[in-house]
Specification:
71% of the residues lie in helices and 0% in strands. The chain is an all-alpha fold and 178 residues long. Helix 2 packs across helix 3, helix 3 crosses helix 7 and helix 4 packs across helix 7. 24% of the residues are buried.
Length: 178
C-alpha cells in the first residue's frame, strides 16, 4: 500500500472538484446575452475599444460570443492588482497613441481605425518583436522612463490578444467539429 500516492491522488481529486465550478463560470462568460453587460473591471469606454480590438484580432469569427466579457472576467479574477493597474495604464497609453496617430477620439473609433493602429504596432521586424517581448519580460518598476510608455502600450495590446485567443480557443464554437 503506497500511502503517499493515495494522499496525492486524493488531494488532486478534491482540488479538481473544488476548482471546477469556478473555472466553468469564467468560461461561461463567453456567451452573449441581449442584456447590457455590467463589467467587473473594464469601463464602458475600455470595453468599446476592446470589442473593436477583438474584431480585428478574430476577423473571420462571427459568433454570438462576448469575448469582451470573458476578457473582463479574466482580468478581474486572475490578474494581480498591480498588473490590473498596469493594464489600465496601458489602455490610457493606447488611447493616447490612437489619438496622436489618427487625430480622432478613441470613442469614435471604428474597426478600420483600430486595424490601422494594430498594424502600426504589430507589423514590425522580428528583431523589434524580440526586443518588445524582452521588454515585456522585465519588471515594470525597474524600467527607464523612456521604456515605460512602450511597455504599457504593448502590455495592453498583447494581453487583449492573449485573452481574446484564450476565449476563442476555449469556446464551444472552436471545439465543435467542422
Amino acid at each position: 500500500m503506497d500511502r503517499r500516492k493515495a494522499l496525492k491522488n486524493m488531494s488532486l481529486a478534491i482540488g479538481g472538484f473544488v476548482i471546477t465550478p469556478s473555472i466553468l463560470s469564467v468560461f461561461a462568460s463567453c456567451t452573449t446575452s441581449s442584456v447590457d453587460v455590467n463589467y467587473l473591471f473594464l469601463s464602458k469606454e475600455q470595453s468599446f475599444v476592446i470589442d473593436h480590438l477583438v474584431d480585428v484580432i478574430l476577423p473571420i469569427f462571427n459568433a454570438n460570443i462576448n469575448h469582451t466579457a470573458f476578457i473582463d472576467k479574466m482580468l478581474y479574477h486572475t490578474v494581480s492588482k498591480e498588473n490590473q493597474q498596469i493594464f489600465k495604464a496601458g489602455y490610457l497609453e493606447f488611447e493616447k497613441n490612437y489619438q496622436s496617430l489618427l487625430n480622432k477620439e478613441v470613442l469614435k473609433a471604428n474597426e478600420s481605425d483600430i486595424q490601422t493602429v494594430v498594424e502600426e504596432y504589430f507589423s514590425i521586424s522580428e528583431q523589434e518583436e524580440e526586443a518588445i517581448f524582452n521588454l515585456l519580460e522585465k519588471d515594470f518598476s525597474l524600467l527607464d522612463e523612456n521604456q515605460k510608455l512602450e511597455y504599457l502600450n504593448y502590455y495592453f495590446l498583447t494581453n487583449v490578444r492573449y485573452y481574446c485567443l484564450l476565449g476563442y480557443c476555449t469556446s464551444e464554437y472552436y471545439q465543435k467539429p467542422i
